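Can't paste images in this forum, so I'm doing it all in text. The chain is below; anyone willing to post the predicted structure tokens underneath?
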Amino acid sequence: MAYDAVVIGAGHNGLTCACYLARAGLKVLVVEQYREYGGMTISEDVAAPGYLSDVHASGYLVAKLAPAQEDLELTAHGLELITPDPNWALVTTDGWSLLIGRDIEETVRNIARYSQKDAATWKALYERYLAAKPAIVKGMYSAPQTEAAHLAQLSQDPQGGDEFRFEMQTARSWVNETFDNETVRAFVASFSFHAAASPDDVGGGEFAWLFSSVVQDVGVSIVKGGMHRVSAALAADLEGHGGEIRTNASVDKVVVNGERARAVRLTGGDEIAVDRVVASNADPYHLTIDLLGEDVVGNAIADKLRHYEWGDSFFTIHAALSEPVPFAAGDDIGHAGYIHVQPSTIEELSEIFAQCRAGVPPETPLVGVVNEAVVDPSRAPAGKGLIKFVVHYVPYRRADGRWWDDADEAYADHIVDWLDGTALPGLRNRITNRVVHSPLDLERRLPSSVHGTHQHGAFVPYQHGAMRPIPEFGHFRATPLTNVYLCGAGSHPGSGVSLGPGYNAAQAICDDLGLTFPGAASA
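Text version of the structure:
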């Protein structure tokens, strides 16, 4: 049987792309190597039976801006979000705390405890974001501008020079010129970590502003019943429009004849014929080097992907608890869905990356505390607790020559002891079971989590927008092939649960096939 379109990888972006193609009238099959669909939006009993953890992605934020959320009727398909108030918090190693409330005035009052001026600045920056929001959303959910077009547009704007400077600023530069209080500076700069950007990486300032503004705007939600409900809602929409999903189906090769993909060959030899489109939610290296091959894409493109940068690696601890652990900073902190436990200065935040990139696991890292069972009690047995600790960041290869397999439990002990002694007193004694995922574990569990990363490639200026993953593939089309597309986080707008790459790739495919795009972009 031949399909109009085969999508490789049933992560949330692959499923999003497939949903739109099925709604456009194509016969669609999604093939997934894992036993379940979902990719990085998957939830399983990791820490212990009955304790449901989000294995990779945690928190539902940017996707709230996505046209796909309404187009694909995710709420009607069972997606239920819980948005706590406060929904984001900071706890520093010296005892300071900050909260982002659902109401902007609540956040302003919280920041005013440190600086009245900084509180007013936060509000002004948020208002700046609200004014720019339509353009920001349009830029995320459409084909990216080329750098030349973007610079030409800035050159016509009287404030274009200032805007370009802001786009290039590091988080350290921007927060130092924008805020007065050191704790507030460290709080705002820490948002750049969600692009794996150190305080001294180009572009970190703008990302910190955007990410923190979206948190203030729509809030970080925990998905009731686990992140897998995101992929389940997408799967329901796909199947409701005639699409199919096949799990335990690892792709060995995209079969090419001339400049077109003609079939997808599975491990074991089965071939699935493709009449019109192959869309890949796999990471760009795997698509290029393994599935297509250098003989198809050419030496120049293959060489660029061999030098593709992956970014910094994660280290996670899933902890089942005998009972919830209160934060030393107070009850309000413990009700937030996502909490940064981190050093209190920009210098210390910068040192995290200096150690990580030198191959040394940071002594005093930034740890994202995902309060899974506090926000969503269905995640754990009654009266028990469940927390996911995400260490931002650790080296993939250690400078001491040790493999993570021989050192992961010792480093997890260090993290637990550090948290117990600072933000979460009593944590160690409440852990009844824990499971540690080093970068190697994350990569083994899901191969597209290359080097234990979540982003399908570092989010650096030369690997985003129309240059993501490389200029030849920057508009979702796998040049020189005429019917192979990228629809994963290795394409615009990048990583995170945004539904964006899948949405944008589907638009490009519909444009090329002369089909009406069945979504908000066609309205």
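Residues 2-80+226-308+452-522 form a domain with the FAD/NAD(P)-binding domain fold (CATH 3.50.50.60). Residues 108 and 119 are 5 Å apart (CA to CA).
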